[in-house]
Amino acid sequence: MNSVRPTGSPLKAKPSSPPNKNNKWPEIALIIAGLIVLFAIANYAVPRLLITLTRAARSRHYSPTNSYVFAAPIVAQADGKQKIQVNVFLLGQKGYGVKNQNVRLIVQPLHGEQILPQIKAVRPITDEQGQAVFILTASKPGSFKIGASVAGIPLGQSTRVIFRSAGR
After folding, report:
1. C-alpha to C-alpha distance for 93 and 65, rounded to whole angstroms
2. What confidence tens digit (pLDDT) does each residue in 112-152 have?
3. How many domains does the chain have?
4. Same domain, 98 and 122
């Protein structure tokens, strides 16, 4: 028997096989890709955001009790040439430097000296680390307490320096 197909009738396609429910690889691949994206965000974006936030918080307020005054050396000759460098570190409550603050040195004689050392303000405005720098020289011997203030508020810490006569 000859069977004739009618023209214009569509061919029937074989039914496709049902999806394999045991194949978990596509789901695992999506989970791994998601973890990689989260890892990248956590290691790149979050630290940069935190750095930006801490930099913004740094420049606002300083703590007079958490700031420091250092001198080096603490003893020099009173010849008008030898120098003592005084570094003031203006810090906030969390220990970060506070920038753009005008620091003023306070020099007090310890033994009734009549002539104070000369102060050269190398960098009286604090930098990114909160540091201000001064240079002291003296032509007469003496011992001095060196402190600092910002906007008229003295810092809680100070140091002592000595200028000795040239023969000592």
Report:
1. 9
2. 888 899 999 999 999 999 999 999 999 999 999 999 999 99
3. 2
4. yes
DSSP label of 155: -
Rounded CA separation 121/105 (Å):
9
Give me 165's structure tokens.
């006569």
> In Å, what is the CA distance from 131 to each residue of 58, 91, 126, 162?
13, 9, 5, 23
Q: Kindly state whether residues 36 and 91 are assigned to the same domain.
A: no
d(C-alpha 150, C-alpha 97), whole Å = 14
Do 52 and 124 lie in one domain? The reply is no
Per residue in 32-82, pLDDT (tens digit) is 887 787 777 777 766 666 655 554 444 468 999 999 999 999 999 999 999
In the chain, the N- to C-terminal Cα span, in Å, equals 133
Domain span holding position 34? 23-58
Q: Is residue 86 one of the residues assigned to a domain?
A: yes
Collapsed DSSP state (helix, strand, coil) of residue 32: helix
pLDDT, tens digit (0-9, with 9 covering 90-100), for 77-105 = 999 999 999 999 999 999 999 999 999 99
